[in-house]
Amino acid sequence: MKMVGLIAIFSLMLPVVSSAQNGTELLGLLKAGDFKNLESFTKKIQTKFEDGALSEIELRNTYRPFYNLDQENLDKVEEWERKIPVSYAAHLIRGTYFKRRGGDARGDKYISETPPENIKKMEQYFEIAKSELNASLKLTPKPFLSVFQLLQISAMTGDEETSSTLLASANKMLPSNTLVRNRFMVFLKPRWCGSYAQMKEFIAKSKEEGASAAGIMQLEAIMYDDMGDTAMDRGDKRLAVENLLKALEIGQRVGGEFRKDFLESSNYYSCREPDLKKYCDQAIADYTKTIEIDPKYAYYYRGNAYRDKGQYDQAIADYTKTIEIDPKYAYAYVDRGRAYREKGQYDLAIADYTRAIEIDPKYALAYHNRGWTYANRRQYDLAIADYTKTIEIDPKQASAYNNRGIAYGQKRQYDLAIADYTRAIEIDPKLAFPYYARGVSYYFKKEYDKSWEDVKKAQNLGYQIYPKFLEDLRNASGRQN
After folding, report:
1. CA–CA separation, 297 vs 290, rounded Å?
2. CB 3.0 to 4.6 Å from 421: which of 84, 290, 413, 438, for a disulfide?
């Protein structure tokens, strides 16, 4: 059927199709410059939502194809606005576009690590977004998506009062909503200057306000997801897996797109932690569904999942896609380098780590991983230089001291190796390997009592000592233990 025929149908009725299909057809109308039928179609979609015939998630998904507009289509949106100044959808789409541009400009690092020029660019984009979204508020009775987008801007800029006002507005429009409540919950995470106490208080308040049982479960899952991530960062893997498992179990019960949209950490660790592996394939499916909406991060995180499954060729393909979309995304180079390294393709791995360092000279992990690769090629001086650079950037990275100690040990510089193992132990006394490695260094220095002392500490921490080394230590020291 030709576009003319489709447009004639759209002008008569809203097709009974999925929100994703609606969004694709809307984008087609935009590309064709058919603003009259585009306006008619979007009005009918909004009316269906306001009449309760379309869910908040379906409404959101309808507009997702507009998230990644190219310049030509952005120009079309602006032409749409000029021709129909009171178009709710045109203002919403343009506002959402610049909100996302602001988020991209800020990047995904902690605010303390974000360059001032990125923050300035974010603020410039956000001002355009707010102007558009605020204008849209007066153009339809229930501008739910506009409030949703504005809340994300206010939360990202630390405007708690405005965020609370917008939450109340969304709840008044749609008391049963989960989308805005869930997004508000995300910004109560400790990394956004919130706390778990605040998250629990918000869950209790939402119950009092009459949020559905499924809505409360989603809020709890978001909290468990972040608790798991925090515990993992602190090295408490048992507690981390316990919380991530709770989040994933709730996500499975809730169904729909909730896990894909809000359980980022749980999906990330699903292919990495043995106790979560049963959710791995679903995590990959979630990332695949997200490619059309947010291709850069969907390819990147799916690449991580494939890498954790040991499917390195698929991982490399996804990281390469990420790099094609954003050639300056240093994380993708580092993780593609890891996949190459696992395949034994060390030259390609080093090239990727080097490119990541060129993009971000303060990226400690890039130096660390390149050092590890040099060490595997027995290029110990280059490895030591990279581990030293890692330590300069991140003085509390125990693994860098540990690995530099190994490189010194290979060069038979045992005093330097012992110093590095000692520093690794000071940073993280629960690490078993540095005790063992330091014990080996003491053995080569013929300081057998110190060697035995470290071997016992390593054993107490669960490290299995090589039988041949124990035999050599017994023979050399004249001791059995």
Report:
1. 9
2. 438
Dihedral in degrees, nearest 10, Cα atoms 345, 351, 355, 356: 40
List all residues 6 or more positions away from 1 whose beta carbon is below 8 Å from its beta carbon: none
Phi then psi dihedrals of residue 138, to 5 deg: -90, 0
Q: Sign of torsion, CA 281 282 283 286?
A: positive
**End-to-end CA, the chain:** 84
32 burial level (CB within 10 Å; 0-12, 13-18, 19+): middle
pLDDT higher than threshold 80 for residue 7:
no
Residues 90, 69: Cα–Cα separation, whole Å: 13
pLDDT of residue 18: 53
Over residues 330-354, mean pLDDT? 98
Task: Tell me 13's DSSP state.
Answer: -
Structure tokens at 451: 């060697």
Full-model pTM: 0.83
Contacts of 263 (CB under 8 A, 6+ apart): 221, 222, 225, 247, 248, 251
Q: How much is the mean pLDDT over the chain? A: 93
DSSP 189: S
Position 240: which residue type?
A
Nearest to 56 by CA among 196, 258, 195, 204: 258
The closest alpha carbon to 150, from 161, 164, 134, 135, belongs to 134
Residue type, 402: N
Contacts 24+ apart (CB under 8 A), 327-330: 328/359, 329/296, 329/300, 329/359, 330/355, 330/356, 330/359, 330/360, 330/363, 330/366
Structure tokens at 207: 């119950």
Identify whether the C-beta of residue 222 lies closer than 8 Å to the C-beta of residue 216.
Answer: no
**pLDDT for res 14:** 39
What does the alpha-carbon distance between residue 224 and residue 246 come to, in Å, rounded to a whole number? Answer: 7
**Whether 147 contacts 166, CB under 8 Å:** yes
